[in-house]
Amino acid sequence: MQWLNSFKIALIEEDTEKLKELISDMPCFEKLEDMQTAFSLISEAISLITQKRDQIKKDMDRLNKAKSFLDLEPKKNSYEFFS
């Protein structure tokens, strides 16, 4: 089935936008095997999205810590460099 193949490719490429699009346009499956495959693939997509979300949260926390550190640095006036 074309939808399953497209979903597999999007999952391998970690293309979350394409995965979202494919889930929105998911067809009705006639075979139990196709339904089980789709369920498994969607579970993998959820896992991928969760991992990406967690990584983004870690990156944002790191950036906020760096920003806080830089905000704590004493501000130097430009004329102090010439003293």
Q: Beta-strand percentage?
A: under 5%
Average pLDDT score: 90
Number of strands: 0
Structural class from helices and strands? mainly alpha
Count of DSSP helices? 3
Q: Globular, elongated, flat, extended or rod-shaped: what is the shape?
A: rod-shaped
| Fraction of residues in helix | over 70%
Q: Unreliable runs, pLDDT <50, ≥5 residues?
A: none
Taking all Cα atoms into account, the compactness measure Rg is 23 Å
- Major sheet: size, sense and barrel closure? none
N-to-C SSE string, H for helix and E for strand: HHH
Q: What separation lies between the terminal Cα atoms?
A: 74 Å
Quickly describe the structure.
The chain is mostly helical and 83 residues long. The chain has helices spanning 2-12, 16-24, 32-72. It has three helices and no strands.
Describe the structure.
The chain is rod-shaped. The longest helix has 41 residues, at 32-72. The protein has helices at residues 2-12, 16-24, 32-72. It has three helices and no strands. The mean pLDDT is 90. With 83 residues, it is an all-alpha fold. The chain starts with a helix and ends in an 11-residue tail after the last helix.
